[in-house]
Each structure stands twice: as structure tokens, then as C-alpha cells.
């Protein structure tokens, strides 16, 4: 109820008593959806910060405030120097009005869906809007009368007691229903509503309470009570409630994001391990290249020149007959030689698949262990951030990095991965942005994006990060649709561009090759 009419009617006279005669000396914004007013009477200062966001609308009254040196924008220049006369609450609405001695007004519209601030230098003058997209707010008129006790307009004649007082909102309605409102007769309902109205107009206390997981400021004792605050000081009540609510909202948001990150990583690692296991099974349960090459070499005398196939007895498969296809344009010996080379690569692939499956299964298990730890952490933002840092689960900064760098940007376990967008962009990435100790990756023997993993001092790049970067290099290459792709991995210091080379062309002096499935591991659809 921190923006509810019944709280604002308590807050308005308290602000008038505190601030009458104060002048506005600062009006600015340094965060999105934030309007900050600084007032002083020459000896004392008072800060008012309106959070005009649809996700959380609030009026914060910090005891001190330090304006940032950067990203701070002055607003409403005509408001500076204005001397406050009084603060009033609009009748049965979530609007607080600051009226100044000159006749200027500032309306703080504290709606949860379309909050705004409306400034008028003169009552009949044009309106200046904080959120200019809400153009209809320019029609909001200053409030010149004191808040009435009874509703006006269509609500005043509504037959249902609750509908006659729409400003009651959700907490009083919940309180009434918890006290038998739905089962009561019409006369009893009217009596219950009037009793609640008297409590709201003269609350015995303000309550910090939790209801359905949300921290609320209430004028009625409802939910899980955490703290009772004196009704004589609504300013202190706001100062206690808003920082607590913001901290808990930040904790809930970061906890949810952290859980989603771990669930996504566990799912990706499990899927990758499963794919590796399936491929490994297929390799181990099909006739290998080496067996075929051995059979060709064992039956050379039976293969005529230019043959397109040969029927042999397969001594690897219980002497079963088998037909081996051949290329008429090459000798059987050359065919066998090519098969032996493929067998060597297949052996390398088998080893890498086995290692990848074990590594990704371990990663999935690690993520599941962290997910089990999350509910056991104290519900404290500082503790959560320390735990997140301990496990290198810092939030991704992809959006920020993307605005700073002209490449595709990905964040993985604290490491930044940059992906070139075209041949010229590849040159820019490799020649100008990459450091000699960065890891450089590229799909082998085909055109594709240069990929760079930014070096972090004293921290070797973990194998899972290298693998995911290699998958990106494969995905953004001509091998995107292959089942497996070899990817070159080397420190950037071993990559050089020869004189006269075309855009994107480089020479690699030392390399390690990894085999990966081409995909974008940072998107669920692999796009």
C-alpha cells in the first residue's frame, strides 16, 4: 500500500510539515525511470526519489543521496528554485501533488502500470512529462482541494460496498475477506467496510509484512508480519520499506536468473554428452575404416584393375560375405591408404568424443549440485552475490559488450568470446582487437568466422569454454551443416597475416585441432 491513496493521505501532511518553505535545488535522473529531487531550507537537505518504473513504482525518501558524476541528466529546469507550499494527495487516487508558492505544481502519478511525473509552471500552463510516451498524462490537472473522505462520481452510488471505494485496492479487500466479508449480509458488509475505512484513515501503525512472497507496506495487520512501525511517522515507514523491498526484489531477480543459467547449462551439457555418447556408440558398433582397409589389402589379388566393387569374406565378422565398394579411378592400394587415414581420424574422434561425454556429464552434475545449494543459501543479496562469484557464475554482460564491440559477443563462465561477422570484420578482430595471449579459433580448411576467447590473467581457459567457442567457429563456417567439424585452436601470437593476403586470410604456425558438433551453444535453437 505504499502508493495507495490511504497511505498517501498520511504521507502528504507529514511531507508538508517537514518541507514547507524548502526550495528545490536539484532535479535530475541518473537511472532509468528515476526522478530525483533535492530540497533545502538553507540548513538541512531533503531528498525525494520517485521510482517511476512499471515493474516497481515507489516514492523513496533517502536520508542522504550522492549524485553520480556520469550518466546524470538534469531535468525540469523551471522547477529549480521553486519554494514548496504544501503536499496533497489526490482524492481516492495514487497521485501526490507538490504545490509551490509560485503556483507551479508537480504531480507524481504513482500508478503501477503507467507511472509518471507531470510538471506545470502555471496551473493553466502546458505540462512537462517525465515519461513523454504517456501523452494523455498531459491532461492531468492540479489538485486544489483537500482529499475528501467519501468517493465521488459513479463509484459513490455503486450498490456493492467494495465497489464504492475502489481506492481500497487489494490488501484491504484481502483483509475484509479474511474477516468474513464474503459470508456476511449486505448490512454486515457495509459495517465491515466502514470499520476498515476508519482504520485506514487513522491507522494504529504501519506494518512491514510478507504476502505471497512479496514484501508489502500495509496499514492493516495482514500476511506474515515482520515489523510494526509508528503511524505518526509515514516518512520513516517509507524509508524502512523501500530499501528492503528493492533489495528483496533484486535478490529474487538475481536468484531466478542464476537458477535459469544453471538449468540451461545443465541441459546443454547433458544434451551435448548424450549426443557424444550416441555418436560414440555408432562408431563402436559399425564396421570401421581400418577393418575395410585390412580386407582390401588382404584381397588385393582378387581385385581387377578398374573394379567398382569386390566381394570378400569378412574375417572380422565370422567369415560372412561382404561387398566393398571401390573407386574405379584409383588403385585398391590408394583406397586402402585413404581408409587408414580416415581410421586414424576416427580414432582421434572416438577419444575426443569419450572425453567430451565425460566432461559434459561432469559439468551437468556440477550444475545440478549448485541448483541443490541455491535453496539452502540465506535469503540475502550480498550472500547470493558472494556465492555466485565463488562459483564463477557472474551475470552475462553480452548486451553491454555488444554495444562496445563490432563483433558477435558471448559470455561463458566469465570469459568473453568474440566472433567475426565477415572477412573484413575477421581482419579487424584478429589484427587489431585480439591480444597475443588470446585463444584464436577457426573451422579448419574452410571459410568461416574468426573466433577469439579473451585472455584472463592467471586463469587458463577451461576446456568446456574452448569447446563451446569451437562450436561457434564451426557454426559460423561453411561446415555448419556437417555432423562434425575440425576446428583449429591456437594462441593468437601464432596467427599472422601474409602480405597481400585477401581479407580474412591468415597463416597459422602452430595449432591444435578439436572435433566438435557445429552449433551455437548459447541459443536453445542453435541459431
TrEMBL record:
Gene3D superfamilies: ibrinogen binding protein from staphylococcus aureus domain (2.30.310.10)
Keyword field: Coiled coil
Coiled-coil ranges per UniProt: 248-279, 336-363
Domain NFACT RNA-binding as annotated: residue spans: 411-500
InterPro entries on file: NFACT_RNA-bd, RQC_Subunit_NEMF
PANTHER family noted in UniProt: NUCLEAR EXPORT MEDIATOR FACTOR NEMF, RIBOSOME QUALITY CONTROL COMPLEX SUBUNIT NEMF
Name recorded for this polypeptide: NFACT RNA binding domain-containing protein
Protein species of origin: Hymenobacter yonginensis
Amino acid at each position: 500500500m505504499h502508493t495507495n491513496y490511504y497511505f498517501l493521505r498520511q504521507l502528504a501532511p507529514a511531507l508538508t510539515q517537514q518541507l514547507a518553505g524548502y526550495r528545490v535545488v536539484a532535479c535530475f535522473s541518473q537511472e532509468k525511470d528515476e526522478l530525483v529531487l533535492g530540497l533545502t531550507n538553507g540548513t538541512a537537505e531533503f531528498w525525494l526519489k520517485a521510482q517511476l518504473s512499471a515493474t516497481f513504482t515507489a516514492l523513496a525518501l533517502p536520508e542522504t543521496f550522492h549524485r553520480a558524476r556520469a550518466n546524470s541528466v538534469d531535468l525540469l529546469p523551471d522547477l529549480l528554485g521553486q519554494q514548496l507550499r504544501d503536499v496533497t494527495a489526490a482524492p481516492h487516487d495514487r497521485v501526490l501533488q507538490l504545490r509551490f508558492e509560485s503556483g507551479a505544481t508537480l504531480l507524481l502519478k504513482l500508478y503501477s502500470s503507467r507511472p509518471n511525473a507531470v510538471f506545470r509552471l502555471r496551473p493553466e500552463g502546458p505540462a512537462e512529462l517525465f515519461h513523454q510516451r504517456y501523452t494523455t498524462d498531459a491532461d492531468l490537472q492540479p489538485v486544489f482541494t483537500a482529499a475528501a473522505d467519501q468517493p465521488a462520481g459513479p463509484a459513490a452510488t455503486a450498490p456493492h460496498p467494495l465497489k464504492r471505494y475502489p481506492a481500497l485496492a487489494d490488501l484491504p479487500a484481502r483483509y475484509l475477506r479474511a474477516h468474513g466479508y464474503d459470508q456476511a449480509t449486505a448490512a454486515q458488509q457495509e459495517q465491515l467496510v466502514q470499520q476498515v475505512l476508519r482504520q485506514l484513515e487513522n491507522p494504529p501503525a504501519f506494518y512491514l509484512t510478507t504476502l505471497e512472497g512479496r514484501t508489502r507496506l500495509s496499514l492493516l495487520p495482514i500476511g506474515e508480519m515482520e515489523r510494526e512501525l509508528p503511524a505518526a511517522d509515514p516518512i520513516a515507514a517509507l524509508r524502512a520499506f523501500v530499501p528492503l523491498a528493492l533489495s528483496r526484489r533484486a535478490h529474487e531477480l538475481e536468484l531466478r536468473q542464476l537458477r535459469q543459467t544453471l538449468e540451461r547449462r545443465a541441459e546443454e551439457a547433458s544434451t551435448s554428452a548424450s549426443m557424444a555418447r550416441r555418436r560414440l556408440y555408432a562408431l563402436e558398433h559399425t564396421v570401421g575404416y581400418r577393418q575395410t582397409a585390412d580386407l582390401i589389402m588382404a584381397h588385393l589379388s582378387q581385385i581387377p584393375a578398374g573394379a567398382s566393387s569386390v566381394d570378400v569374406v569378412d574375417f572380422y565378422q565370422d567369415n560372412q560375405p561382404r561387398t566393398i565398394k571401390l573407386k574405379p579411378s584409383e588403385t585398391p592400394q590408394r583406397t586402402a591408404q585413404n581408409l587408414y587415414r580416415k581410421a586414424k581420424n576416427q580414432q582421434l574422434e572416438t577419444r575426443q568424443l569419450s572425453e567430451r561425454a565425460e566432461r559434459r556429464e561432469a559439468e551437468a552434475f556440477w550444475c545440478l549440485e549448485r541448483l541443490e545449494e541455491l535453496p539452502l543459501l540465506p535469503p540475502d543479496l550480498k550472500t547470493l552475490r558472494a556465492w555466485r562469484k565463488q562459483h564463477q557464475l557472474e551475470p552475462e554482460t553480452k548486451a553491454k559488450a555488444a554495444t562496445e564491440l563490432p563483433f558477435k559477443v558471448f559470455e561463458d563462465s566469465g570469459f568473453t568470446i568474440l566472433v567475426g561477422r565477415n572477412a573484413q570484420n575477421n581482419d579487424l578482430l584478429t589484427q587489431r582487437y585480439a591480444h597475443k595471449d588470446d585463444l584464436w579459433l577457426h573451422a579448419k580448411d574452410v571459410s568461416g568466422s574468426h573466433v577469439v576467447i579473451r585472455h584472463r590473467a592467471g586463469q587458463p581457459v577451461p576446456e568446456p569454454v574452448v569447446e563451446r567457442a569451437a562450436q561457434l567457429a564451426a557454426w559460423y563456417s561453411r561446415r555448419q551443416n556437417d555432423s562434425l567439424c575440425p576446428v583449429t585452436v591456437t594462441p593468437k601470437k601464432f596467427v599472422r597475416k601474409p602480405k597481400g593476403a585477401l581479407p580474412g586470410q591468415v597463416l597459422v604456425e602452430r595449432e591444435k585441432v578439436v572435433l566438435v558438433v557445429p552449433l551455437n551453444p548459447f541459443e536453445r535453437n542453435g541459431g
